[in-house]
Write a structure and sequence with these properties.
Elements: H1 34-44, H2 46-58, H3 62-72, H4 94-106, H5 112-147
Helix pairs in contact: 2-3, 4-5
Length: 149
C-alpha cells in the first residue's frame, strides 16, 4: 500500500486498483450477481419448465424435442477398445514400428485415432531417446576433455 499525502494508507495498489483484503471495497460476494439471481428464480419453477418443454416436445415442437434429446441423450462419442497389434518389432527402428502401426490401421486392427495416438507416442519416445543419447555424448566429450587439458 502506498501512503497518501495526508498520511493515511491507501487500499489501492500501484495500478490504482484495490488490493486484495482491502477495507474500502471488498467486492461483490459470490452468488450475488444478476446471473445468480436469475438461476435462483428459475430453480424455483424448474419442475414447471421441464413439464412445459416436455409437453411441447410431445406435441411436435422440434426445438423442444431437440432440447429434450440434447439434455437427456447426448451425442455418442466413439469408444476405442484396446487392441493387441502383432508384428510390431520390439527391437526395430521407430520408423518400422510406425509402419507396423499404419499397417494395423489399414488392416482394420486399430482405429485410425488409436494409430495416430500410438504414432505420436512413438515420436515422443523417440525425442526422449534422442535427448538421452545427446546427454550421454556430451558427458563423454566433457569427460574426455577433462582428462586431456
Amino acid at each position: 500500500m502506498e501512503p497518501i499525502k495526508d498520511g493515511k494508507k491507501s487500499d489501492r495498489g500501484s495500478s490504482g486498483r484495490f488490493v486484495k483484503g482491502n477495507r474500502a471495497s471488498p467486492g461483490r460476494p459470490p452468488g450475488r450477481g444478476t446471473v445468480s439471481e436469475l438461476r435462483d428464480k428459475l430453480a424455483q419453477d424448474m419442475d414447471q419448465i421441464i413439464d412445459k418443454v416436455r409437453e411441447q416436445a410431445l406435441s411436435g415442437d422440434l426445438q423442444a424435442t431437440r432440447i429434450v434429446l440434447d439434455r437427456i441423450l447426448p451425442a455418442l462419442r466413439p469408444v476405442e477398445m484396446p487392441a493387441a497389434v502383432a508384428g510390431i518389432p520390439a527391437a526395430g527402428t521407430m520408423t518400422a514400428k510406425a509402419g507396423a502401426l499404419l499397417d494395423a490401421a489399414m488392416a482394420g486392427v486399430l482405429a485410425p485415432g488409436q494409430a495416430a495416438q500410438l504414432i505420436a507416442a512413438l515420436g515422443t519416445v523417440s525425442r526422449i531417446a534422442e535427448v538421452d543419447e545427446l546427454t550421454a555424448r556430451i558427458e563423454a566429450l566433457e569427460k574426455r576433455h577433462a582428462n586431456n587439458p
